[in-house]
Amino acid sequence: MRAFLSPRMVLDCHAMEGRRKIVFYDGDCLLCAAVVRWCHRWDRGGKLWFASLGSDFARERREDLDLPGPGEEAETFALFDEETGQVAFRSRAALALASHLGGPWALLGKVAAFVPPALRDKLYDQVARNRRRWWGAREDCSLPPGSLRERILP
Description:
The protein is an alpha+beta fold. The protein contains 7 helices and 4 strands, in the order αβαβαββαααα. The protein has a 4-stranded mixed β-sheet with strand order 2-1-3-4, sandwiched between helices.
């Protein structure tokens, strides 16, 4: 089922093109959905947009951005910066996102950056492999709150 986009949402989406930071996530994962809601709540600059890895938006960009397919265990999360053209995966994506959110999250990201990348990614992979067992998976198609719905790319 295709989500309805109001004309205002389409205009907002296109007005921001080139300046967005797009979070690609596993749309069936409850942990991932909670992280998306949390990021949206802390995104003071309004630059974060979100796309499920199973969305048309992600499928159209999968090859160019080297995005994982839906359900791939290790890389369930990616952050694409349209301004720089860079894509971050795994723990690097989490650190970039924390930096973007600012405040205490940026500080936490700076502290976490001292952990060697191999160790950070090992921890990330452990959570990614077990996320559905620990937090569950979506069985229905629940709609996010209105302000977040406007930031979900089709």
